[in-house]
From TrEMBL:
Pathway: Protein modification; protein glycosylation. The keyword Iron-sulfur does not apply. It is a multi-pass membrane protein. InterPro entries: Glyco_trans_ALG6/ALG8. Keywords: Endoplasmic reticulum, Glycosyltransferase, Membrane, Signal, Transferase, Transmembrane, Transmembrane helix. This is Alpha-1,3-glucosyltransferase. GO terms for cellular component: endoplasmic reticulum membrane. The chain crosses the membrane at residues 111-134, 146-163, 175-199, 205-222, 234-254, 293-314, 326-346, 366-386, 393-413, 419-439, 451-473. The lineage of its organism: Eukaryota, Metazoa, Ecdysozoa, Arthropoda, Hexapoda. It comes from Orchesella cincta (Springtail).
Length: 500
């Protein structure tokens, strides 16, 4: 089943159309002085990195007051801002002038910033990379190519957070996918470098680190006992870290303090994590010492990710396991560990659901129904965030499009209403739509002004914890029998024939 150039072109055109469509909507903090939002944060980092010497970037001083959007991502993000800032200084100098450019907003700046997201998204070949993963899978799974690419490229969380809210997560996510491909094409050193870069662009990528660590140590040490490669991989990782961090010299400790902020509490806003849910029952945030809470979170998170990671470690060490099964276990571990990190770790933001979603996109050929469902509810869990920023319509449009594609691909079959999946999917999305309507049309009681965003967070938590349990079960009981036997399109064709 070849893939024609026309298919690729149309899928890419569609992907660009969705992305630029979303970027017409407002961004985080648009026209909201004095602090604005994520858009201003990114612009401010360009201003800081272009105008101040490197050791000032993460260091609080009268020149760089960190209370105003201090850099809180690792060095590669800062270098990325520096590179973009240099370009902006040429194209629109007033937008990065030191001190006077705070809150700078103009239609041209909005266009340039949106364009820089698009360029970062394409430059680090996230799009092409998604495609290559598919190519690798094509031999084993007869999943229709147009369907996989269209679904992967229209998954709403990635589009909305980067092109709507305003961030550059596409870089670290793209690097992570690249790393997965490297590992499974026998290029472990390059994979290690790509993943190290991902973690150094967004520390959130650490959610995926356990899967990489378990796989690499087990493959190199347990399976191959290949000391030379182990040494080479280790050297590559350390050199990459050195290149990124050494320029900061003695100031590296300040960088670290900014990247892992203890003082910002166990969660930021209403978010579907365990700690937020627990906080509704018995208050934690602001009651206990942040350091103690962070330690507790760390312990719970580590315990919760161990079963999945150990399973991957043992399976990777097994020389008889076919490569395709190993890839599936790796991706399941990536999904399970990152979802548990989302649920249990310290200071989690709503948008971090993108990390399990990335694994979900890669797992779609094996578990089309479940993963489409997961990505759909993850998108809807972001509704309150986008409602605040007035781009909820964009969220609903892209999500509807995504569901429609899945429906066209016969993954969600509406004549399967009698089937359990159809009922569950409709009920779960219906629940979201009910809560979303409540948010818009029902005035909450005076004592609970944030009733509906809180209910959406709790409803999402319920979904996430069930998905975590179900896929742990799948990973730990092997789940080989559950692999897709026929393509969704073939299954669909069979059922339409019956109904005719
Ligand atoms: C940073 O320094 C400014 C003064 O330059 C001070 O007002 C502010 O509280 C400091 N912030 C932090 C996070 O230390």
């Amino acid at each position: 089943m070849g893939i024609s150039r026309a298919t690729i072109t149309s899928c890419l055109a569609l992907a660009l159309f969705l992305r630029w469509g979303v970027s017409l909507f407002p961004y985080s903090g648009e026209g909201k002085p004095p602090m604005f939002g994520d858009f201003e944060a990114q612009r401010h980092w360009m201003e800081i990195t272009v105008n101040l010497p490197l050791h000032h970037w993460y260091f609080n001083s009268t020149l760089n007051n960190l209370d105003y959007w201090g850099l809180d991502y690792p060095p590669l993000s800062a270098y990325h801002s520096y590179g973009l800032g240099k370009m902006f200084a040429k194209l629109l100098p007033s937008s990065v002038k030191f001190g006077t450019s705070r809150g700078f907003e103009s239609p041209l700046l909005k266009f340039l910033m949106r364009f820089s997201v698009s360029a970062s998204d394409l430059l680090l070949p996230a799009l092409i990379v998604f495609f290559s993963v598919f190519k690798k899978l094509k031999g084993q799974h007869a999943f229709p190519s147009w369907l996989y690419i269209t679904l992967a490229l229209s998954a709403p969380p990635f589009i909305l957070v980067d092109y709507g809210h305003f961030q550059y997560n596409c870089v670290s996510l793209g690097l992570t996918v690249w790393a997965v491909i490297c590992l499974f094409t026998e290029n472990i050193s390059l994979g290690a470098v790509a993943f190290t870069l991902a973690v150094n662009h967004k520390q959130m990528s650490l959610y995926h680190s356990l899967a990489f660590f378990a796989y690499m140590t087990s493959t190199l040490v347990l399976k191959r006992a290949d000391l030379l490669t182990t040494f080479r991989v280790g050297t590559m990782i350390i050199s990459t870290l050195g290149l990124l961090w050494l320029p900061f010299g003695d100031y590296w400790i300040y960088v670290l303090g900014r990247v892992f902020p203890l003082k910002r509490g166990v969660f930021e806003d209403k978010v579907g994590t365990f700690w937020y849910a627990l906080d509704r029952v018995t208050p934690i945030k602001g009651v206990y010492d942040d350091t103690e809470v962070a330690q507790l979170c760390a312990i719970v998170t580590i315990v919760s990710v161990l079963p999945s990671a150990i399973n991957l470690f043992l399976r990777s060490g097994n020389p008889k396991l076919p490569q395709d099964d190993l890839l599936k276990t790796f991706l399941l571990c990536m999904f399970n560990t990152s979802l548990n990190c989302f649920l249990f770790s310290y200071h989690v933001h709503e948008k971090s659901i993108m990390l399990p979603c990335l694994a979900a996109v890669l797992l779609t050929p094996w578990y089309p129904k479940e993963m489409i469902w997961f990505i759909t509810i993850s998108s809807l869990s972001l509704y309150p965030l986008f409602h605040q920023e007035q781009s909820h319509i964009a969220l609903l449009c892209v999500t509807s499009f995504f569901v429609l594609v899945a429906q066209q691909g016969k993954i969600i079959t509406m004549n399967g209403i009698r089937s359990l999946y159809g009922i569950l999917f409709l009920a779960s999305v219906g629940g979201y739509l009910f809560l979303i309507s409540g948010l818009h049309f029902i005035t909450p009681p005076g004592k609970l002004p944030h009733l509906f965003p809180a209910l959406i967070a709790l409803y999402s938590f319920l979904h996430f914890i069930v998905f975590s349990a179900w896929f742990h079960y799948n990973q730990l009981t092997d789940g080989r029998t559950r692999a897709v036997k026929a393509t969704p399109a073939q299954q669909g064709r069979k059922s339409t024939k019956k109904s005719q």
